[in-house]
Amino acid sequence: MPELNLILFGPPGAGKGTQADRLRIDFRLPFISTGDMLRANVKDGTELGKQGKDYMDKGELVPDELIVAMARERLTEADAQDGFILDGFPRTIEQANALDAQLAELKRRVTAAILIDVPGEEVVRRLSGRRVCVKAGHNYHVDFDPPKRDGVCDQDGSRLIQRDDDKPEVIRNRLEVYHQQTEPLVSYYDQQGLMRRIDGTRSPEEVHDHIRAVIATLRMEDDV
Ligand code: AMP
User: Fold this and answer.
1) 41 CB under 6 A from ligand 1?
2) Does 95 fall in a domain?
3) What is the pLDDT of residues 68-126, one digit of tens each?
4) What whole-number distance in Å separates Cα of residue 6 and Cα of residue 11?
5) Which residues pair with 132 in a beta bridge?
6) What's the structural domain count of the chain?
7) Going by DSSP bridges, is the β-strand pair 4-9/83-87 parallel, antiparallel, or unpaired?
8) 163 ligand 1 Cβ < 6 A
9) Which residue in 16, 57, 59, 209 has the most C-beta neighbors within 10 A?
């Protein structure tokens, strides 16, 4: 079956990670999150982690050349050859151009960019209550999706913390960065006829169903 090369788009807190987790299982595709990769680099104290940390803590974008090199390497790994789900990449026009160029070299292309749309005030509400486990990054929300035991991950028993960049002042900056640098990509992919919009204010189940329906339609249209 031809490959499915998907990009998940949307402001921080739109639920991209939650949906990617489900789609990864539905379609058996690797889930590639540049944010997760960077956080792993910070945790491991690599050179890339050291270079990226200050930007991440402020909610700024890590420079394109660092991100493009990291994503490029990841996309050459064996598990990404039959398709992938990208979360948080590309985030600038320059990154999108680099991704297109890399795929074109391999006679591949982006199948669709799926925008999970959520208004700014909802983003702030979601991110300020988000807690993640230190071991694997499993997500919870203090009001909407609390763990069974306060401060403890249901799935692996590790401690739940608030990401440094989920503090209110940083959230506002991340949203601003999203509007200025990442939103232009909506028309970039629109012009290529690849953008599909999803209402991200619905429940995770409804959003998931909608994305699956979009992918099913794409497969019928393109025979992918
Ligand atoms: P995320 O978990 O996707 O919200 O990413 C967390 C942080 O990592 C962002 O606020 C950026 O500082 C950095 N980051 C992740 N992906 C990218 C990217 N594609 N380009 C630049 N910076 C990124």
Assistant:
1) no
2) yes
3) 999 999 999 999 999 999 999 999 999 999 999 999 999 999 999 999 999 999 999 99
4) 17
5) 139, 161
6) 1
7) parallel
8) no
9) 16
Protein residue closest via CA to atom 10 of ligand 1 = 59
Would residue 206 count as lying in a domain?
yes
Cα–Cα distance, 214 to 57 (Å, whole number): 35
Answer whether residue 22 is part of any domain.
yes
Q: Is the pLDDT of residue 60 over 80?
A: yes
pLDDT of residue 2: 72
- Atom 6, ligand 1: which residue's CA is nearest? 35
Q: What CATH number corresponds to the domain at position 88?
A: 3.40.50.300
pTM of the entire predicted model:
0.88
The parent domain of residue 99 ranges over 4-30+77-120+175-223
What type of residue is 181?
Q
Q: Are strands 130-133 and 139-141 parallel, antiparallel or unpaired?
A: antiparallel
